Amino acid sequence: MDKPTRAETMAALDTLCMAEGVEPGLLLALLKFSQLAEKMREDWVECRGAACTAKIKWIKTKKGREMPVERDGTPHHATCPNASQFRGGRGA
Ligand SMILES: [Zn+2]
């Protein structure tokens, strides 16, 4: 299936807005917001550990330190074979 062009997408959006009685600008803002939310959810990186290929995400702790966690929320230190590299933070 061909990807719709931007013009086609915009036209479809306009039609949808007219049908639903929604401001196109408002709908675009919502779309942008959901794209940003999606991007934040996708903020997973591969662990830099030489023997580790886990997907991790860096979060800020309440104390303001960065900490890698896994998809289920457990700190990555616990399972990473290269855990010692995390002692210095992200730059290790
Ligand atoms: Zn790791």
What's the topology here?
Layout (H helix, E strand, L loop, with lengths): L5 H15 L3 H18 L3 E2 L8 E6 L5 E4 L23
Antiparallel strand pairs: 1-2, 2-3
The chain binds zinc ion (ZN).
Write up what this structure looks like.
The protein folds into two domains: 6-42; 44-86, no CATH class. By secondary structure, the chain is of the alpha+beta class. It contains two helices and three strands; from the N terminus they run H-H-E-E-E. A hairpin with an 8-residue loop joins strand 1 and strand 2. The protein binds zinc ion. Zinc ion (ZN) is lined by residues 47, 49, 52, 54, 76, 80, 82. The site of zinc ion (ZN) has 7 residues, from loops.
Question: Based on helices, strands and strand pairing, what is the structural class?
Answer: alpha+beta
Number of helices: 2
Could you report the average pLDDT, rounded to the nearest whole number?
A: 83
Shape field: elongated
Instruction: Count the domains.
Output: 2
Roughly what fraction of the amino acids lie in strands? Answer: 5-15%
Order of helices and strands: HHEEE
List keywords for this structure.
3-stranded antiparallel β-sheet; 13% strand; 36% helix; 2 domains; binds zinc ion; alpha+beta; 2 helices; 92 residues
Short description:
This protein is an alpha+beta fold and 92 residues long. The chain has helices spanning 6-20, 24-41, and strands at 45-46, 55-60, 66-69. It is 36% helix and 13% strand.
